[in-house]
Structure to design on (494 residues):
């Protein structure tokens, strides 16, 4: 006898697609479709937990999608690196959390309509929403692991699928949707959902709090200074900042409100100095090592920040450097090894002029040094990132020779990873480090010396990073998102 066929139950979402020439209306329809789809899955999941598996029914709902078709090679403004497709065809992207990405979606859809003069289609896609992601926003509901529940989860609901959770689009591997449409955005909806879940886990803050400008650091000392700066901004009504969010989603809007540290800190404590338009600053303490740097940037990239910058400590490699000097990276020696499969080491990672100028001007502003005098405390050049924290304890002949040949002036474990992932994900990036030791010249990072160094330098270094981000905040997006980051065949969305 033939096996019984499961009936697929889906929400009634009407016609396949609606046509829009207005970005606001398009986003409203995306929100309605997504709310209906996830609400259907949440309700059916709760029902199944109470009553057990239905036996002959499988529940399924689909991500909404944006689709555009153009039949012309008409050239758009060649100065723009985004907001248009390169050639005739059909382009699409699945969408998740349109509530979180509303401003981004309105902006990108509006540019498509304007630059190509054609409408967009909004409707359900062919990609099912995994039940894990549908219930992610409900803290009262958790999806049991396979075998832990009273029913086999994947017999009743869709679960995450690696065939739609990957980096094939940003890695340039020729991804198309199953109906042949070319990608319109750098990530599929499942890839975004996966990263949103990981961000909440690693940072212990909801992705909704993340701001458009992200600072990475590798020391807790910067967090303390960031909170002090945030409180000063909240005390100033003219600052434009509206709130400060600490690990555990603790948000304050008053400078005097105390913050209780959670009993268990996450792997990457994260803090957000917020503005109403999302153009505030997020600080992520990624800790030490390229693996953490890759993990953080892999997931933050789906939020499409406007810039991310590393402000951490490094080993100075030149005898002329002093502890506390700054290093502005113009190039990177990549020996971190964590991105070699995604971005081969022969791929150059260029410095971005807009970021470099903002950082250099911020150093000049905070230190009150200009021109040739600035060279007393800051050097520009190659930063090397290694995956071995204790490289000094091995035979130094090989590493030191490579460092010399590359003209490296500083060494750390995270900067090249952050820059390379910025290049890969088309997120403007930069690096400003502070020399905390000089291992090649007998000045090791010892407890007493480090303590004095931290007290005198951390506040100034962090302030420089903040000033640079505030400069970038005021820069038009079409200028900040450089064409250097775009390949031959690019997605229209940032």
């Amino acid at each position: 006898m033939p096996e019984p066929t499961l009936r697929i139950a889906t929400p009634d979402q009407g016609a396949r697609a609606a046509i829009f020439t207005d970005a606001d209306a398009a986003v409203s329809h995306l929100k309605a479709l997504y709310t209906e789809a996830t609400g259907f899955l949440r309700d059916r999941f709760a029902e199944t937990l109470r009553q057990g598996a239905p036996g002959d029914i499988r529940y399924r709902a689909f991500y909404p999608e944006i689709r555009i078709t153009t039949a012309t090679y008409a050239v758009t403004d060649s100065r723009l690196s985004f907001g248009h497709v390169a050639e005739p065809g059909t382009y699409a992207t699945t969408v998740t959390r349109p509530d979180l990405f509303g401003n981004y979606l309105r902006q990108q859809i509006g540019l498509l309509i304007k630059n190509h003069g054609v409408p967009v289609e909004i409707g359900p896609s062919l990609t099912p929403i995994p039940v894990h992601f549908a219930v992610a926003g409900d803290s009262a509901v958790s999806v049991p692991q396979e075998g832990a529940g009273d029913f086999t989860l994947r017999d009743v609901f869709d679960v995450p699928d690696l065939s739609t959770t990957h980096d094939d689009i940003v890695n340039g591997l020729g991804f198309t949707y199953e109906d042949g449409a070319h990608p319109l955005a750098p990530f599929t909806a499942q890839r975004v959902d996966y990263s949103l879940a990981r961000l909440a886990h690693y940072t212990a803050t909801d992705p909704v709090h993340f701001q458009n400008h992200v600072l990475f650091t590798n020391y807790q000392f910067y967090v303390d200074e960031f909170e002090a700066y945030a409180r000063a901004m909240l005390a100033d009504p003219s600052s434009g900042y509206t709130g400060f969010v600490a690990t555990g989603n603790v948000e304050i809007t008053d400078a005097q409100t105390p913050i209780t540290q959670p009993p268990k800190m996450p792997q990457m404590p994260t803090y957000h100095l917020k503005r109403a338009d999302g153009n505030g600053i997020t600080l992520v303490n990624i800790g030490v090592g390229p693996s953490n740097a890759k993990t953080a940037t892999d997931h933050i990239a789906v939020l499409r920040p406007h810039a991310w910058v590393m402000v951490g400590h490094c080993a100075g490699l030149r005898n002329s450097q002093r502890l506390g000097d700054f290093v502005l990276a113009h190039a990177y020696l990549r020996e971190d090894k964590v991105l070699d499969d995604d971005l081969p080491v022969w791929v150059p990672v260029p410095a971005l002029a807009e970021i470099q100028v903002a950082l250099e001007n911020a150093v000049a502003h905070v230190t009150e040094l200009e021109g040739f005098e600035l060279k007393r405390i800051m050097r520009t050049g190659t930063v090397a990132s290694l995956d071995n924290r204790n490289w000094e304890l091995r035979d130094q002949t090989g590493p030191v020779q490579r460092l010399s040949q590359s003209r490296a002036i500083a060494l750390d474990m995270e900067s090249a990873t952050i820059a390379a992932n910025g290049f890969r994900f088309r997120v403007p990036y930069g690096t400003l480090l502070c020399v905390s030791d000089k291992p090649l010249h007998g000045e090791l990072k010892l407890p007493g010396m480090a303590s004095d160094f931290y007290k005198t330098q951390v506040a100034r270094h962090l302030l420089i990073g903040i000033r640079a981000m505030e400069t970038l905040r005021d820069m038009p997006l079409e200028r900040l998102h450089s064409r250097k980051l775009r390949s031959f065949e690019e997605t229209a969305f940032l």
